[in-house]
User: What shape does this take?
Amino acid sequence: MNNVEILTEKEAAVFLRVSVSTLKRRRSSRQVPYQKNGRLIRYSRTALLRYIEETTIANIPIEPAPTRYRRAGCRSFRNQVALFDII
Assistant: This one.
């Protein structure tokens, strides 16, 4: 027999660490997989784990943007451009 854990809407929201209203919004836009039995909404834990894996963004190290202007006490853009042209 299949041992699939089925969660209620509140349990699924706690599992995903979002509010119930956020879960409902994602469900209505078909972002989160769910099952409907009559009027009852249920979520499969394995489907939610798959959803988390699919929507996880890889941790790619981001290099800081190069500094374009040296701060020399001038604050206007025109002075910064002029200072940049001198350097």
Observations:
- The longest strand covers residues 40-44.
- Strands lie at 6-7, 35-37, 40-44.
